[in-house]
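Bug report

Summary: structure tokens for Large ribosomal subunit protein uL4m differ between web form and batch submission.
Environment: batch mode, default settings.
Steps: 1) Submit the sequence below via batch. 2) Compare with the web form result.

Sequence submitted:
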Amino acid sequence: MLPFHIRIQGLTSTLSAKLAQDDLHVVKDLELPTDEPEYLAELIESRNWGPSVLIVDDSDIAPRNLTVATDSLPHINVMPVYGLNVYSMLKHDTLVLTLAAAEKIEERILHHLHSITTDREASFKLNQV
């Protein structure tokens, strides 16, 4: 397992790369008017989100219409924000965040980047040069 500060840097780099490539999209919520997979597939196609999509929400429980619609679509995954990782973001072409998930990610990354624990961790790091 990688050290914590390396994982934070990987997360920020991957989010930045997705944004620069126009593969990061923020939506208000995940409510769909229907639970038909065809509707979701057409929505993804019309927005040019690519062949594989990772949808991230701030809660564990996704809306019923979304979960039913994604059951038969193998290239679309739904994940809570606390499970977001670099591998999952790189595995999918497009990352779709809810507004609440984006705010939670921003808050956590800023907290860890500006915390004083990085100074305390420096004494425990091995010099590998």
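Above is the batch result. After comparison, the two runs are identical; trailing whitespace caused the diff. The helical segments are 4-20, 37-46, 64-71, 86-91, 99-113, 117-122. The chain has six helices and four strands.
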